[in-house]
Amino acid sequence: MKEHAPAHNGQSPLRGGMLALAALLLALANFLAVLNMTIANVTVPNMAGGLGAGGNQGTWIITAYAVAEAITVPLTGWLSARFGAVRVFGLSVVFFGVFSLFCGLSTSLPMLVLMRVFQGMSGGPLMALSQTLLLRIFPKEKTMQAMGLWAMTTMLAPVIGPVLGGWLADQYNWSWVFYINVPMALVIGWISMIMLKRYELPLEKNPVDLVGMILLVVWVGALQVMLDEGKDLDWFASTKICVLTLVATVGFAAFLIWELTEKHPIVDLRVFRHRGFSACMVVMALAFGAFFGVNVLTPLWLQYNMGYTATWAGMVVAWGGLLSPFCAPVIASLAERFDSRRLIFSGVTVLGVITLWRSVATPDMTYWQISIPLFFMGVGFPLFFIPLVGVSMGAVDESETASASGLMNFIRTISGGFATSMVATAWQNKSIHAHEELAGIVGGYAVQSLDGSGLPRDLGRGLLEVLVSNQSLMLATNELMVDIGLIFLVASVSICLAPKQQRAVDPTRAGH
Which of 209, 308, 358, 419, CA to CA, is 20 to 30 A from 215? Predict the structure, then answer.
């Protein structure tokens, strides 16, 4: 007979259909939290216009959620130990639905930004606690299947978000981007608190690390705002960005010193003493940042260089997630029978090779020529992400699982934000540099040829400028694809730093 994770409060563990329902609810909660990181991105102009604000002001709709979520994610371990993982999860889902409703009802930009802050604070714990509770309710021998289910929602949500957000804004209005969260969140929160109450563990009444919490808010907030606004303010040419960088750097150093010496830290950084966990986080930061960078660069190239609309660009990017639901169960099964480090190496290498393949793109490529490489990237991502989660969680002590999960999701969030800013800035800078070089190469000869063609001089120069600009964007895109592909390959080798996994995650202790 298969061993099931024990339940508490005198109730038997969930089995069969009830276990499947609980797993589905946990996966959907994670899906909602990750979805809302990207679903509003394409609708910011609609939101800002509808609320009488400018486009630059509208970016705070994205920044507010990202900052609030990034701050609360690493607090998950402390929150679950002090108040109970099931209780924190259930209330977070309910509050996520409530604040989503208020986001949709907002009548001004300041109100929407404030509600997005509360929505992000509610969504942060959902990612880590959905993972923690999946480990807790599943039998030990099915750990990888639990992680496969969680990873599948993590992979699909960022791909579906922009497409769904654009469609809702076009067919209805921007408020529906938030309204769709409400019924799902309220139902998930209500049912999960009833079903999962049996898995609540005894609480630890540790004192509140107020200094650590303040330092976390300061440095993470400064870093996230710097990353979000740096590309628009020309980075260190702006005094504001320089000040934010200084605050983030000093705050981070102070946070590290305080948390490593505090008896009851708000964020347990001691989990990094495990070599396996630290090595996995290096791979996570590099590979997930590179993957996010590809997903940011692709729609930029398609819209500005290839003439795609936002909706069609989203449909192209969506091909990258189509294989994930089918591959996830198979990869979860393979991770139980083979050395997970080899799967991680293979998955990240596949992503790197396909990205390098995409570095020879041309402006005359068809929809399918662009989509097919993305389609096959849907194999590489789950091939590295699912076993990476298993190895990282298996490398820490069972009592540290919730803290490790929170830190893993924090690193994933920050690496995504960093990649977004870096890719947007590098793409612009590389295109400017390529434009200058091309203009110098073709300028004189091309102008003479156009003058001799009989075309009006201004029209000929205009056509030449369009041609050079398009080629410049194409060259910048290909150069960035090479850079991102090499980062993937570095990440694939980095998994060699991790020792072989010695144990599976014990679901009876996960998250406490």
Answer: 419
Full DSSP string of 440-487: HHHHHHHHHHHHTTT--HHHHHHHHHHHHHHHHHHHHHHHHHHHHHHH
> Is residue 303 a part of any domain in this protein?
yes
Each residue's pLDDT tens digit, 201-212 = 777 777 778 888
How many domains does the chain contain in total?
3
Domain that holds residue 129: 1-205
Task: Decide if 86 contacts 196 (C-beta within 8 A).
Answer: yes
Question: Per-residue pLDDT averaged across 443-454, rounded?
Answer: 57
Task: Say what the pLDDT of residue 511 is.
Answer: 40
Are residues 58 and 184 both part of a single domain? yes
How far apart, in Å, do the first and last CA atoms of the chain sit? 26
| pLDDT tier at 250, thresholds 50, 70, 90 | very high
Say yes or no: 242 and 320 in one domain.
no
The answer to whether the beta carbons of residues 25 and 191 sit under 8 Å apart is yes
Q: What DSSP character marks residue 175?
A: T
pLDDT tens digits, 42-62: 677 677 777 876 655 666 777
* Orientation of helix 16-35 relative to helix 109-137, angle to 10°: 150
CA–CA distance, 104 with 359 (Å, rounded to integer): 40
Q: Please, what is the angle between helix 143-171 and helix 310-318, to 10°?
A: 170
Q: What is the model's pLDDT at position 186?
A: 92
Write the CATH number for 359: 1.20.1250.20
Q: How far apart are CA 185 and CA 29, in angstroms?
A: 7
Residue type, 204: E
